[in-house]
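subagent[fold] <- orchestrator: predict structure for attached chain, return tokens only, no commentary.
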Amino acid sequence: MSDKNSYLNLILRCIPKGSTRARNLRDVAIMADVSERQTQEYIRQLREAGHPVVSMSSGGYFIPDENDPLDIAEAERYMAMMRGQATERLQTVKAIEHWLETKRKPVQMNLEAYMRKG
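subagent[fold] -> orchestrator:
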């Protein structure tokens, strides 16, 4: 299978619906016959495309069942965790930006200025 969309569809079929059937990364990768790293990338792409792939703290992946209160609770937990990570990363970016703005020496030039000079 060489078509990216075919792999995305295959990965999606390997991820079960329902938290009680969650499948770990290794098993999804084996079922799709791709590396774990590539599986993680495909899962990222599936999420980016709007598929609600949830990762449990136990390491299992699943698509939540909208009729299962446990799945809804697990999806909410996962969303809160991801929101917290995003907030923390944004705070780190702001700290680095502030540091650069206050500590950057006037003799430093950006890449564009360097390229014009050369």
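orchestrator: received. Logging for downstream: The chain is about 65% helix and 5% strand. Residues 4-117 form a domain with the Arc Repressor Mutant, subunit A fold (CATH 1.10.10.10).
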